[in-house]
Design goal:
The protein contains four helices and two strands. The chain is of the alpha+beta class. The two termini are 12 Å apart.
């Protein structure tokens, strides 16, 4: 199941997602040319990602956390093999 909630957004935001130099070109919401995204003020992080989630690629994020973001304390990484994260939040991941 894919959930979508329409919200008003600015034309600048739409351009960033779809236009040249934005997400459509970089395939990442953060600038991957930067050496670091987070410093030592970033709180401890747990990552839960779905095995059937093809909209969010968690593996590149996890790899970056391991290799470049040395100040980030990743306390847990959990892959929910047969579900999407939205299903797990609802508690229906075990029903499939």
């Amino acid at each position: 199941m894919f959930r979508f909630t329409p919200t008003p957004v600015s034309s600048a935001s739409i351009f960033w997602w779809c236009g040249k130099g934005g997400f459509a070109d970089r395939k990442c919401t953060l600038d991957d040319t930067l050496e670091r995204w987070f410093d030592d003020r970033f709180p401890p992080l747990s990552i839960y990602h779905g095995g059937r989630d093809f909209l969010v690629l968690a593996e590149p994020l996890i790899e970056r956390m391991q290799n470049k973001e040395k100040d980030v304390n990743v306390i847990k990484v959990t892959k929910l093999d047969k579900s999407e994260v939205s299903e797990a939040r609802r508690g229906s991941a075990s029903k499939s």
